From TrEMBL:
Organism, as annotated: Streptomyces misionensis
Annotated protein name in UniProt: Endonuclease III
HhH-GPD domain boundaries: 102-249
Similarity field: Belongs to the Nth/MutY family.
Protein residues bound to [4Fe-4S] cluster: C251, C258, C261, C267
Amino acid sequence: MTKKSASAKKTGTARKASPAGKTASVRKVTPVKKAVATGASVAVEKAAPAKKVAVEAPAGESRTALVRRARRINRELAEVYPYAHPELDFENPFQLLVATVLSAQTTDLRVNQTTPGLFARYPAPEDLAAADPEQVEEILRPCGFFRAKTRSVIGLSKALVEDFGGEVPGRLEDLVKLPGVGRKTAFVVLGNAFGRPGITVDTHFQRLVRRWKWTAETDPDNIEAAVGALFPKSDWTDLSHHVIWHGRRICHARKPACGACPIAPLCPAYGEGETDPEKAKKLLKYEKGGLPGQRLKPPQAYLDAGGRPAPPLGAA
């Protein structure tokens, strides 16, 4: 390490050249204690076996260079979001499983505003398995697709009671047999309720890994396999949090805030969004933009870092 780079590391700010030839200042955020992980938005999907996909680097970039760049991006994001956690409120594996199924086609915020009423009335699989579907539908109406989601959560509750003694199983092959549960949902539960690594390929994750040219795959199972091959298995769960948080806060679908992006020098898609720093700052969301996050009861580490909890359902 040169004296100059060592000095930059010491001060916590490194100067890096952007792909556009400009320099971007990357602020190193002091890590805080890791929050207890809890879940992420995923769609209700059919279970499918993971596929082995050949990982090819972008034109002009070697396989080794791709791995190094991908891992460096993850390290940078870990410093920007040291308190990253899945943004679904839950207190046990059953609540996380139900909340993750409900998060299909809606926001984690909307799920978090809805599930307190659901779990207050139906706290255990046995309760939800015996519930009147019409009453559950009324509770879940704000989440959208409430009839299909009612069938899924009642169905998976019945399966838990009948096949697993009312307990959420800790194995992928068991979880994907439950109604409304596929690989993405299963990995959310395994990684955040049981501490078993998995990659959550939601819409944010898909968008960002293609922007970064980690893979050109479009099928979620192929994306999972291709990206997983770039990282140690122990990194998979936190990697998912880092990528999803960055997609929600800075690297948006329609207009990414390139001028406020801490990994701009590493991004081959730099310039697709707003590059002016001041204009880009106005695009930031959640705590990066001074707005509340998606959880009503976020981890203490998130609050200590300046994060704000979301308002309850019906609050002004």
